Amino acid sequence: MSEYGRAVPEDLERALAAEVSLRSRMRHVAVGLAGASGAAVLTVLWVTEPHPLPAGTQAAFAVLIAVGLAWAAFAGWVLSRRRPLFARDRVLGARLALAVSVGTCVAGTALAAARGTTAETLATALTGGVLVMAAGLLLARAHARRRALLRLRDTLRDA
């Protein structure tokens, strides 16, 4: 029996349990702590600089702090949810990873092109491209998982 008072097939029961498992919660706690800690360290470094930083460095610090806070906010949102998410957290996390990967790839490649050699630019672009492809694959898998869980939920509601 489920918490909703009726029998739920094992597939949905397992899917719902996986979303609220201790292991899943601990992963989200780690993501939140990493994001918040990174943002805090960068903020402290920025604020305690004895001389004003160049505009480009300030922009980079601001973007990295925003990325850390975005991951912390994402983790907080997931951990505060009480209802099943049906893999919505996976989709949102993968979108965030894709956005950060694309931004990092573009910025890194532009910086390498402006200051580095051709080989360094190509290496940076290739590495960034691999990260973007990995994040894109994670997003595709997250969408597929969400669709499967929603189909299963709808099938069980209709039954």
Describe this structure in words.
It is a single chain. The protein is mainly α. The chain folds into 2 domains: 21-83; 84-159. It is built from 5 helices and no strands. It has helices at residues 10-19, 22-47, 55-80, 88-115, 118-158. Helix 2 runs antiparallel to helix 3 (55-80). The longest helix is centred in the last third of the chain and has 41 residues, at 118-158. The two termini are 16 Å apart. The relative contact order is 0.10. The mean pLDDT is 90.
The fraction of residues assigned to DSSP E strands is under 5%
The figure for the number of domains is 2
Secondary structure tally, helices = 5
Structural class given helices, strands, pairing? mainly alpha
Outline of this structure?
This protein has 159 residues and is mostly helical.
Secondary-structure blueprint of this entry?
Layout: H1 10-19, H2 22-47, H3 55-80, H4 88-115, H5 118-158
Task: Please tag this protein with its features.
159 residues, mainly alpha, 5 helices
